[in-house]
Amino acid sequence: MLNHKFDSVKQVLLGDVGTGKSSIVLRFVKGQFVEFQESTIGAAFFTRTLSMNDQTVKFEIWDTAGQERYHSLAPMYYRGAAAAIIAYDITNPATFTRAKKWVQELQAQGTAGIVMALAGNKADLLEARKVTAEEALAYAQENNLFFMETSAKAAINVNEIFHEIAKRLLQSQAPQQNTGGMILVEKAENQSKKASSCCS
């Protein structure tokens, strides 16, 4: 089979301030975690190429600022995006509510057929959990997203969420397949028991 390469797949991260979007990207692109990450101003740009079997997906990732004052800039970054990760903090219900608003905005104004992932970040902080995985999964399934709980700090499901996006982008070029909602919570909970329960 010929090598199938996606050039410049535009990917955007959206979510409230403090949900760990920048930490997710840093973990994925550089394999690093910074305990006290400064808030993004405007947006930050990263690239990483994933090879999957005989196929390649090059991500051009826009990590957007979560502060409300930067909301008006968001369409500039999600316009034309083939994929989006909408992040919330599992210990903060307000960020889950905000994530739903981002989903609605993308559904109304985003690219047709955009691959959307809902990321419940800070999955290492299980004792402080306020948003259940079941609630988030139900929402994701109702809105044609896929869902994973992640921890940038403990390196839980960060690479997996990008690999799943890449897989779905490649599938979208092939005959359509219904992959449905998915959840990788059990793995997150098992791994997070070994992780520190500080900040994510």
TrEMBL record:
PROSITE patterns per record: RAB, RAS
Protein topology in the membrane: Lipid-anchor
Keyword Protein transport in record: yes
SUPFAM superfamilies listed in its UniProt record: P-loop containing nucleoside triphosphate hydrolases (SSF52540)
Stored Pfam families: Ras
Main location: membrane
Family: Belongs to the small GTPase superfamily. Rab family.
Protein name (database record): Uncharacterized protein
